[in-house]
From TrEMBL:
EC number(s) given by UniProt: 1.4.99.-
Pfam families, per database record: DAO (PF01266)
A cellular-component GO term for this protein: plasma membrane
Entry protein name: D-amino acid dehydrogenase
Superkingdom classification of source: Bacteria
Top enzyme category: oxidoreductase
InterPro entries: DadA, FAD-dep_OxRdtase, FAD/NAD-bd_sf
Biological classification of the source: Bacteria, Pseudomonadati, Pseudomonadota, Gammaproteobacteria, Pseudomonadales
Function text: Oxidative deamination of D-amino acids.
GO biological process, one term: D-alanine catabolic process
């Protein structure tokens, strides 16, 4: 079939790869001049199935209030006049129960674990190189209370069969020798040995080049105006230039911008742009720099090692599509990397970046068919876009090709946000649970 993918971030490009491998004729459209130039550009550099957890968790509403008064808050909320912001926040609060958290985390873990397996195969098949390392994630705790609270996550890791190690202070320094300089600031850590790291932008651009070799056509500098529909299916995509592109199937993979195009068609995708920041700095001293990813539980900031650079990423702001680079946020990132790895990187030479992560209220992406005959979603991956990209796109390619997917597709379908009965008379199959 002819498939038109809207979006050339890591989700759009992996979708293109798997659909082309399945024998489809694929075109990718994006307003940017190249692949991976928005949220995929400066992310934290982690492939972290073991760290996959929804932000909507028991205790988060209470913490959010406390964070409002903190100097370096991991989360900040600036009310806007957008009603979707409030609706999304209400939906997220509804997912902060123990029961919802357990269901959502398990769905995310399953997809992320499957995705890592898909990535390993993709690496073998494509030979794509992106400065990747396979040395795990170390979540560091600055207080005993954080260490004790990790028990709940460990229970889920055990249920999903994910290997982990609980480390004391010396154990943390053993796996990350650069922490020796700041060991007195931490009490211990949780290590996820199967997690990986790498440069997502490099991965996306290099995979796009490999996909082009398979015959995928990339059309950059093409802003999308609207999806043309007759109520039963999509009949084309109008670009801002006025040109209309047509295909047999359409895949919406525009991250935070997906709801804007879906809304006129009657789909209220509950995706909110959660703003994050990152710094990229040169390594100053190899022995004092991180080996892999360190996740600072207190500030929710990740410090990740690339070949000769360090990526520091984190924070969440709910402020709509405001892309201002705030110095206050830069100060937090600089503080965390300097605190944990005082001699590791050249902070003065850091570049500062921001992007919007497309977050759903339950943390799980929206993947699969819509009630329109030929429209598919692959969007809403939040902070785990790269972690979940290969698995999500393989799942999408299987569904679109009529193959049996490896996961229960109903867990990721848009149907979970809608009334099932309302969609059945559209000829849309009810999710099999």
């Amino acid at each position: 079939m002819q498939v038109l993918i809207l979006g050339s971030g890591v989700i759009g490009v992996t979708s293109a790869w798997y659909l082309a491998r399945a024998g489809h004729q694929v075109t990718v459209v994006d307003r940017q001049p190249g692949a991976g130039l928005e949220t995929s550009f400066g992310n934290a550099g982690m492939i972290s199935p073991g760290y996959s957890a929804p932000w909507a968790a028991p205790g988060v509403p209470f913490k959010a209030v406390k964070w409002m008064l903190a100097k370096h808050p991991p989360l900040s909320i600036r009310p806007t006049s957008d009603p979707h912001q409030y609706r999304w926040m209400v939906q997220m609060l509804a997912n902060c129960t123990e029961a919802r958290y357990a269901i959502n985390k398990e769905r995310m873990m399953r997809l992320a674990e499957y995705s890592r397996d898909c990535l390993m195969d993709l690496r073998t098949d494509s030979g794509v190189d992106y400065e990747h390392r396979e040395q795990g994630t170390l979540q560091v705790f600055r207080t005993q209370k954080q260490m004790d609270a990790a028990a709940q996550d460990i229970a889920v890791l055990e249920r999903c069969g994910v290997p982990y190690e609980v480390l004391d202070r010396d154990g943390c320094v053993r796996v990350e020798p650069g922490l020796a300089a700041s060991a007195d600031k931490i009490v211990g850590g949780l290590r996820l040995p199967n997690d990986e790291t790498g440069d997502c932008h490099l991965f996306t651009t290099r995979l796009a080049a490999k996909a082009a070799e398979l015959g995928v056509e990339f059309r950059y500098n093409c802003a999308i105006d609207e999806l043309l529909s007759d109520g039963a299916q999509i009949n084309g995509v109008r670009l801002e230039s006025g040109e209309v592109l047509t295909a047999d199937r359409y895949v919406l993979a525009l991250g935070s911008y997906s709801p804007k195009l879906a809304r006129p068609l009657g789909f209220d995708l509950p995706i909110y742009p959660v703003k994050g920041y990152s710094l990229t700095l040169p390594v100053a001293d190899d022995a004092m720099a991180p080996v892999s990813t360190i996740m600072d539980e207190t500030y929710k900031v990740a410090v990740t090692r690339f070949a000769d650079r360090i990526r520091v990423g984190g924070m969440a702001e709910l402020t709509g599509f405001d892309d201002t680079l705030k110095e206050k946020r830069r100060a937090t990132l600089e503080m965390v990397v300097s605190d944990l790895f005082p001699q590791g990187g050249k902070v003065a030479e850091a570049t500062f970046w921001t992007g919007f992560r497309p977050m759903t209220p339950d943390g799980t992406p929206i993947i699969g068919a819509s009630s329109l005959r030929n429209l598919y979603f692959n969007t809403g991956h939040g902070t785990l876009g790269w972690t979940m990209s290969c698995g999500s796109s393989k799942l999408l390619a299987d569904l679109l090709s009529g193959e049996k997917p490896a996961l229960n597709a109903g867990d990721y379908s848009f149907d979970r946000y809608t009334n099932h009965k309302e969609h059945q008379h559209h000829g849309h199959p009810a999710s099999a649970h």
